[in-house]
Amino acid sequence: MVRLIATSTKGENMLHIKKEGSGLMAKLRLLVVAVLAIGLVASATPSNAAQKAPKQIRILYATAEANSAAVQAALPSFKAKTGVQLVMDTMPYNALQTKVFAEFAVKSSYYDIVIVDTPWSPALAQNLEPLSGYMTNASLNNLAPLNPADFIPKVFYDTAVYNVKNPSLHYPKPTATVDPAAIKKAGFDVYGLPIQANALALAYRKDLFNNAAQKAAFKKVAGRELTVPKTLDEFTEVAEFFTQPDKKLYGTTLMAGTGDWSTDDFKTLLAAFGGDGYMIGNNQELNFNSAAGVKALTYYRNLIKSGFTPPGTTSASWDEVATMFNSGLTAMTMNYHDLKLDASIAGGEIGYAKVPAGNSEGPHFGTWMLSVNKYSKNKEWGYRAAQWLTSAAQSTAMLQKGIHPARNSVYTAAGKLSDPNLAAYYKTLKQALAVGAGRPRLTNYGEVNAVIFTMVNNVATGKLEPKPALAAAAVEVTKVLASAGYKVP
Amino acid sequence: MQNEVAEIDVASTTGGLKLARKNSGPAPLKQKKHSNRIFWLQMSPALLILLLMTIAPAIFLITKSLTNDSLLNSTSDFVGLQNYQAILTDTSLLHSARVTAIFVVLAVLIEMVFGLFLAQFLYQKSRANSVAGALLIIPFAVAPAVAAMIFRELLNPNYGWINYFMGLVGLPANVDWLGNPLTAWSALLFLDVWQWTPFVTLILIAGMSSLPPEPLEAASVDGANAWQIFRHVSFRLLAPFIGIALVLRTIQAFKTFDSFLILTGGGPGDATSPINLEIYRVALQSFRVGYASAMAILLLIMTSILTPVLLRILGRATQTEVEK
User: Fold this and answer.
1) CB A102 within 8 A of CB A127
2) Which of A226, A466, B111, B235 could form a disulfide with A297 if both were Cys (CB 3.0 to 4.6 A apart)?
């Protein structure tokens, strides 16, 4: 901005010089034109000349939700490489959300890099530095190769690509190879770099599925081999088979408690039954209130009603279902991370697979990204640090600490991990991320989400029937969206 | 000073002790003006702090509640009473207000009854009562969030202690406490009563310790039994302390948030979703400051109306006792 004003002022001076007319003046004019041209180019894209290195770059980060331990371990290497210290403050989810919004509300420059979760992005996008210009500037990508095409397209577009004029829009080509120039051309920009990609995946007790007695028993009952369920029908059949409450064993967990998690279960099933896994469209169409929505909720309710899930399912969160599975209470589970059976379960082994599909699929996914604070005084170095932390080399190094990468090449490296359990998990995670469905882009997603998870829980507990529950939720969501200024078609 | 008569109005309708000073003749005008000036001069620091700490934020909150302000929006438009209209016609918010009211009434009522009952036994000075008094501090010294997390673990249907011990005595051992509205409500109330009854008890113990022994002894000599002494003498004299405990607990109960968020998350469905949880979602998840301010103002009005009403009811009850 300052440069443009200076340009204008200098331009007027230049005209004045021209009127006087002389050889020296002509040379001076050329010099001024050259300076102006450089200035204009510099103002259009981030500076080619490296910004002076600051002493430190401050990062505001999550805790276990985005695997802070893995990122923390990488920080000293950045200082060794560049001399710039990365200082990271971490906060648990709710406190972090409040802190992030409060920082941007006062346009604080304190943090140079801020971690952003996908539900927050539509409200925050205008406060995040657009990065396409940085990504195409070679001098800002010299700490590690950027290689944007390496990012899993669905993850990258869902997480980081926004049209700031209309943040409700998703990128129209979610499976196209990532190319910052093409993104810019389509009227979008990049507002962060993915660092922790979470997706719902199926975990199962490999030892039970491979047990000869269980296999024989299943064949006798089902008339087919016991295999890891790929379809929802198979999932029900296997869940029923393993359910033996007298032996403290149930088929599967579900995250049906009141919270974000039950919305995630619902939207995964919604996509599996052929509905829109995002639930609400780019123009606020309420796609969850559909025939697929009724099927998804009916299926969900029936699994619980049939007793194939353990007691406490209708109040369970993602954390509690992990405990249920890890302690050997269920044969299968669906969760956002890898799991570890308790040491007391002799011979226990875990296998992973994509969540069962119906006539289509779209497991819930959501990714954290590192964004550069628009008000930071060290934006270039903020970008360089974020780019380095999310590079293939650093993501690969973080694998041992369980980071969920967003790059294809890192998943190739993950296949060679010495821990077979982790390697198997990464293989499934990559498959889930490639087909996942994210969240609708709304500035008040938290409120909409509360209506939906309340509805899902009401159906799960048997208080409401699926169809009227969806209809009532649609009315409520319409009101909530209207209160935030949206017009529902 | 000779012609001034001080009168203590013990049977105050506010439930507290009211001191009324009646003068037989007016003071000279100059002297009155002077003393008024000194009064305001002495009061001004306290009034200034009060203004800065309570009145100014309240005015700010009211102003915000008349706008569509959002934390990250640079523009903020005046919308009049639109936010209030939206809240008062929103059925889910009205449901949340009902949940809050039911919780406050039930929790405070149970705590007052239990607190009074415990105080009867613990107010006399003895070594055992001193130990009990010290132990009473523990529940309300625990952070509400921590208490809620511990209760959630205890109530876990698969691994919790409650179901385990129920199983040992032959009761159903797989009760999903938080998956059923009735049991979820019971859990919330039990947690609140466990945590806050000691607070009421301690206030009432302090009150009982300060009561003059003569009326109690007189009632005893007149042949009143324990219940009659409690009902007609102790309760009457304790009214100011009961009033304090009632008002403090009511205001605190209205503000309860952690246990709802952590223990039930408002569920099952929205069966235990109080107004505070709704304010939290609007204010700290969507950051719609204008709308959340209007919700907070309505909650403030509810508590502001309720406090004098409670005191009046308590005062009337004790007045009736005296008249009997």
Assistant:
1) no
2) A466
Give the global pTM: 0.83
**Is a pLDDT exceeding 80 seen at residue A47?**
no
Shared domain for A313 and A245, answered yes or no, is yes
In a domain, A70, yes or no: yes
Calpha distance B164→A477 (Å, rounded): 41
Is B285 within 8 Å of A311 when comparing Cβ atoms? no
A142 and A87 housed in the same domain: yes
Cβ neighbours of A137 (radius 10 Å): 17
* A443 contact residues in B (CB cutoff 8 A): 70, 286
Of A414, A435, A456, which closes a domain?
A435
pLDDT tens per residue, range A398-454 = 998 999 999 999 999 999 998 888 999 999 999 999 999 999 999 999 999 999 999
Which residues is A373 bridged to in the sheet? A128
pLDDT at B2: 40
- pLDDT band for position A49 (50/70/90)? very low
Rg (CA), chain A: 26
Question: Are A66 and A141 in a shared domain?
Answer: yes
How far B316 CA lies from chain A's nearest CA (Å)? 43
What is chain A's percent helix, strand, coil content, to nearest 5?
50, 15, 35
Residue A263 domain-assigned (yes or no): yes
Q: Judge: A461–B158 Cβ closer than 8 Å, yes or no.
A: no
- Select the residue from B158, B282, B295 to test the A interface by mutation, using most A Cβ atoms within 10 A: B158
| Radius of gyration, alpha carbons of chain B | 25
* CATH number of the CATH domain containing A323: 3.40.190.10
DSSP summary character for residue B74 = S
Q: In which domain, by residue range, is A38 found?
A: 2-44
Q: Average pLDDT for residues B135-152, to the nearest whole number?
A: 92
> Smallest Cα–Cα separation from A191: which of A168, A154, A152, A158?
A158
**Mutation choice for B interface testing from A100, A248, A442, A454 by most B CBs within 10 A:** A454
Looking at the fold, whether A349 and A238 belong to one and the same domain comes out as yes
Alpha-carbon distance B97 to B103, whole Å? Answer: 10
In this complex, do A458 and B158 lie within 8 Å of one another by their Cβ atoms? no
Residue A50 lies in a domain: no
Residues A37 and A78 in one domain: no
Question: In this structure, are A190 and A299 located in the same domain?
Answer: no
Min Cα distance B103 → chain A (Å) is: 19
Claim to verify: residue A153 and residue A229 sit in the same structural domain: no
Rounded to a whole number of angstroms, the distance from the CA of B168 to the nearest CA of chain A is 16
Q: Do A463 and B268 touch (CB under 8 A)?
A: yes
In a domain, A66, yes or no: yes
User: What mean pLDDT is predicted for residues B55-61?
Assistant: 90
What pLDDT does B140 receive? 85
Domain count, chain A: 3
Burial degree of A451 (CB within 10 A; 0-12, 13-18, 19+):
buried
* A212 contacts A179 by C-beta, under 8 angstroms: no
Distance of residue B189 Cα from the nearest chain A Cα, in angstroms:
18
B295 DSSP 8-state letter: H
Domain B82-323 - what CATH class? mainly alpha
What is the rounded end-to-end Cα distance, in angstroms, of chain B?
Answer: 37
Q: Do B286 and A447 touch (CB under 8 A)?
A: yes
Task: Classify the C-alpha dihedral A157-A158-A159-A165 as positive or negative.
Answer: positive
Indicate the angle between helix axes B275-284 and A445-460, nearest 10 degrees.
140
Q: What is the ipTM of this complex?
A: 0.79
Q: Are residues A123 and A206 in the same domain?
A: no
Answer positive or negative: Cα dihedral of A435, A441, A445, A448: negative
